[in-house]
Amino acid sequence: MRTALFGAGRIGRVHAASIKTDPRSELVAVTDVVNEAAAALAREHGVEARAPEDILADKNIDAILIASSTNTHAELIEKGAAAGKAIFCEKPIDLSLSRALELSKRIAGHARPMMMGFNRRFDPNFAAVNAAFAAGEVGKGEMLAVTSYDPAPPPVSYIKVSGGLYRDMMIHDFDMCSFMFGMPKTVTAHGSCLVDPEIGAAGDIDTAIVVLSYADGRIATIRNSRRAPYGYDQRLELLGSAGLLEARNEIENTVVKSTTAGVVSAKPVYFFLERYMRAYSIEWSAFVDAVVEAKPVPASIQDGVNALAMAEAANLSFAEKRTVELAEVLPGA
Amino acid sequence: MRTALFGAGRIGRVHAASIKTDPRSELVAVTDVVNEAAAALAREHGVEARAPEDILADKNIDAILIASSTNTHAELIEKGAAAGKAIFCEKPIDLSLSRALELSKRIAGHARPMMMGFNRRFDPNFAAVNAAFAAGEVGKGEMLAVTSYDPAPPPVSYIKVSGGLYRDMMIHDFDMCSFMFGMPKTVTAHGSCLVDPEIGAAGDIDTAIVVLSYADGRIATIRNSRRAPYGYDQRLELLGSAGLLEARNEIENTVVKSTTAGVVSAKPVYFFLERYMRAYSIEWSAFVDAVVEAKPVPASIQDGVNALAMAEAANLSFAEKRTVELAEVLPGA
Amino acid sequence: MRTALFGAGRIGRVHAASIKTDPRSELVAVTDVVNEAAAALAREHGVEARAPEDILADKNIDAILIASSTNTHAELIEKGAAAGKAIFCEKPIDLSLSRALELSKRIAGHARPMMMGFNRRFDPNFAAVNAAFAAGEVGKGEMLAVTSYDPAPPPVSYIKVSGGLYRDMMIHDFDMCSFMFGMPKTVTAHGSCLVDPEIGAAGDIDTAIVVLSYADGRIATIRNSRRAPYGYDQRLELLGSAGLLEARNEIENTVVKSTTAGVVSAKPVYFFLERYMRAYSIEWSAFVDAVVEAKPVPASIQDGVNALAMAEAANLSFAEKRTVELAEVLPGA
Amino acid sequence: MRTALFGAGRIGRVHAASIKTDPRSELVAVTDVVNEAAAALAREHGVEARAPEDILADKNIDAILIASSTNTHAELIEKGAAAGKAIFCEKPIDLSLSRALELSKRIAGHARPMMMGFNRRFDPNFAAVNAAFAAGEVGKGEMLAVTSYDPAPPPVSYIKVSGGLYRDMMIHDFDMCSFMFGMPKTVTAHGSCLVDPEIGAAGDIDTAIVVLSYADGRIATIRNSRRAPYGYDQRLELLGSAGLLEARNEIENTVVKSTTAGVVSAKPVYFFLERYMRAYSIEWSAFVDAVVEAKPVPASIQDGVNALAMAEAANLSFAEKRTVELAEVLPGA
């Protein structure tokens, strides 16, 4: 599967490496608005840096991997679909739910696989919870709790273009809830600026709790903080009628030191590159499976729309200090 | 400290045993509306079963321990105060917040210690979290999450007179939030009947999540379920600016069995008698400290009013599906 | 079951409290070579301090609990047996194996229960391992590893009269091996003085490893240290053909603190009074079961002889730097 | 660093992959006595399969990686040294200690790096224990315990040519003890055949415990079993004067399932390919560091001789049922 990479930034580099881990796929070209970045990454992988149009027009390229900035996603998806490429796109589709919805309709007839990069679905821990739940190991689902704290806040410059915590950070957790429990009926959002006053000054929050309620009475909570001094805190609990499933943190090593000061274990691995390194590789193989073996994509454009709709509902709930029905922002939900 | 016990039921028996664990206090009399119950418990402890009035009038009795049914608490507190007794009362003060408020005003001048039985404050795990937090070990508080699941739902007959989940079960967790974070500004309640349809038919819920927000932006969540098939689940997480404090479950034993089936540890201890056995004894000593050494009571009647106000706000929030300001139910809060 | 206590020292006080935890038994008298100690403890429990002969002659006393110094055990057991008392005796029978063997023969016809205080058999964790092993949960036993470290060494004055590490400290672990695996065929002892040079100067060791081999090829190791700065370290691992059973440490509380410094849990409970508090009470009830309900004693005088024989073999192995057959010290073993 | 690989079997394939993980090294040729194996692996990596002499004679090849069968190691090391190559060799040097000693003397003047593949030194968990110990975090070393169980025994055909458990399996653990505590003074070996009677019939054991004693009184134990039904059990404990360091198992995932059956965690990762995957890569980089940056090799040929000497002493101890001085098998030790 000959693949071209759009975007040679941090996440682009991660994907360039993941492409190599599946022997069925091959990186053949890189493009980036910053020519030097594209050239450098292309050189490292012994491939060409090419112009986007050139890539899209090349019949020998099977798939495009979109890891460029968020504002380019929708356009590239549309062009990629028009060019008949299989498409893998980093989350989110777009910061605008309406644009995402439109796009989703426009490419509905696209015959090739189109997959959203919700990498956490492929984390072996969350995937194992999902599988155990699907297998009925804890009975019927009742409550879900997602804990997701970054180790440290990003620079305010990033916050300003991020689309806000719910769309930028919690979107992963909204998708995790969809992955486990499907689409909720209502969203109630709470949030504060406790970590960095500059984030508040930029109109955003850094500490947030969202409650999702489902038509059948199930309830989910998501907790986000832009700061966890002890590392990337990525956990999940799912209470079912027959038991509890938890995914705990992955830790730096298994060493335990016992002294008069207490019993000290290692911290969680520092951030998403460490925690989700394996997930990126497994995710990529799932996309290759879809392209090569015609398996269904495990994270569709509809999943992308759904997560965005929950973020939109959270924004509305937070602004108007009330519970919002998903149907208010996503007709028919 | 000569103590008389009101109530010879399950919790009364627990307290009768706790009184013995502090050498400074002595059980001298038992009373109960069921004469046989009073007689039996009195016999076991080699003391007298007496009439309530008789106990209140006895100048040789220093303290009364109220562990009778909830509807008798307020009256007994008032009579005990009038009789000049030191008073220890099981939670809640009353199911009615207004009655609790009135009572609180009426006994404001009571010169002797009056303590509410919020036993979880004395659990060594929660107490250690509180102490570490107070000592600044994780910096400034940001988020609090209380998980509190009973192993199995009570009979519906109990549910019907319980005052509802928020007042009966979550009241402990409201107090835990007060213990850690003080009084919140708003309460947002979510709830469902997922465990036992008869509980729903009786007008109550068995699965609930409440979000508390504080004036300074801190946020707390409480999760309750009437059923956790693996045992009494009593945990807490407190995220601060410098780290995370957790109180995990106490488990039945420390045995770990590794086989092809996985690595199996013991379950959490089954229910509150097992989990809070030590807490009841420590709690009692704290009351004896207040009486004998004039230390402040660590859980005052105001704490009882506060927990009840949060429960009342949760009921209102749940009924009206909106966030409720504490001040709506507790003027001045 | 009317019980008289011989010995009002630290362990005597523990037993005095345990007697109270079983409603079927009652402490009625205390004796000690130090009259004041006997008087004080008797007063605390509202019983009489009496002379030993007086107690032995009293037909209303059913049982004696021997918690006096080691050198008095054998004589008291013999006198108690002659007086027809049920006997509970703290370990060891005597520092001399030959004396223990003689005594064991002499009281062979004693018709009443005679139990050795190997308290660790009653620790809920070790007992659960034993039960799981007996139930075949990990198949056939292969290797056993007992870790047993005291938090801090005793004063050298104690070391001098202790009989040496193998007889004084490891005797508990020898019994634990018997409890799990029965009697070994050979003993190989290793030891050093690493903790306190004064212990070495007194002719003893403070760090030791013993390997036990069994006739059928099973192998056990015991590790002892007189010092574990992080608390009383009492663990066990049993590898079977179908899996591994572990008993881990009990810890002070369940609090976990995560900061930049790592993830810190509580230390093991400090020493035997904390760790084995429950075990002492369960042990006592097992003795009462034997006396009142004629159940077999779960730790017989033969178990006392066996543990002593292993200690004797360890001493011989250490002195002669060779593997010792149990049969060399215990004919017929 | 242009590298040629000797051996295209299981461990050869692992190393071929590791070579790729360091950008400073490159696989350029593969050789194997089985031509097809060499050709297949060479094809996968896009390199040539060549004859050994050809490789050794090629001045453009900087380093050889010896992962062929044990009986070829010594000869290849010698030839590689003669050809002026940097040499990385899988453990052991040879099954014969005397041959290893001779070789060691013969290549003493070899000017280029020569490193033994003791991969466990590079496991992040054991390396972290070593670093913490070296940094004095638990004070002076006292006791070391290495637990090392394979998930399942190899076929008896392998056992027959393996050199026996001490040389084949425990050699890693001997090196781990050297890594932590240096060279011991005596070795006492115990062993049984409990897992597979065919292993016993082949003259080997499958269950073993070795005690190492050090000149200064420190003591180490190694426990080996050819079977742990729950997975590859690779742990270590180091007791120091100021605390305990443990390296625990790495587990398959962080999922915990709590039901009425207990609290179930994932098993240890299955075998050495899973557990030491990262270690192989880190190990290789350490060798490249030695070659490219002239850093000292972290596992020298002397370390290979030492581990072999301990295995030899264990064999002697086991055969003669006595403690063996290292100096008996390794003059001057």
From TrEMBL, chains A, B, C, D:
What Gene3D superfamilies does the database record attribute to this sequence? Dihydrodipicolinate Reductase, domain 2, NAD(P)-binding Rossmann-like Domain
* Domain (GFO/IDH/MocA-like oxidoreductase): residue spans on this chain: 126-245
Which Pfam families does the record cross-reference, listed alphabetically? GFO_IDH_MocA (PF01408), GFO_IDH_MocA_C3 (PF22725)
InterPro entries found in the cross-reference section: Gfo/Idh/MocA-like_OxRdtase_N, GFO_IDH_MocA-like_dom, Myo_inos_IolG, NAD(P)-bd_dom_sf
Q: Where is the Gfo/Idh/MocA-like oxidoreductase N-terminal domain?
A: 2-117
Query: What name does UniProt use for this protein?
Result: Myo-inositol 2-dehydrogenase/D-chiro-inositol 1-dehydrogenase
Query: Could you say which protein family the record assigns here?
Result: Belongs to the Gfo/Idh/MocA family.
**PANTHER family referenced in this protein's UniProt entry, alphabetically:** BINDING ROSSMANN FOLD OXIDOREDUCTASE, PUTATIVE (AFU_ORTHOLOGUE AFUA_2G10240)-RELATED, NAD(P)-BINDING ROSSMANN-FOLD SUPERFAMILY PROTEIN-RELATED
- What EC number(s) are associated with this protein in UniProt? 1.1.1.18, 1.1.1.369
Q: Could you tell me which NCBIfam families the record lists for this protein?
A: myo_inos_iolG (TIGR04380)
A Gene Ontology MF term for this entry?
inositol 2-dehydrogenase (NAD+) activity
Keywords, in A-Z order: Oxidoreductase
Asked whether the keyword Hydrolase is assigned, the reply is no
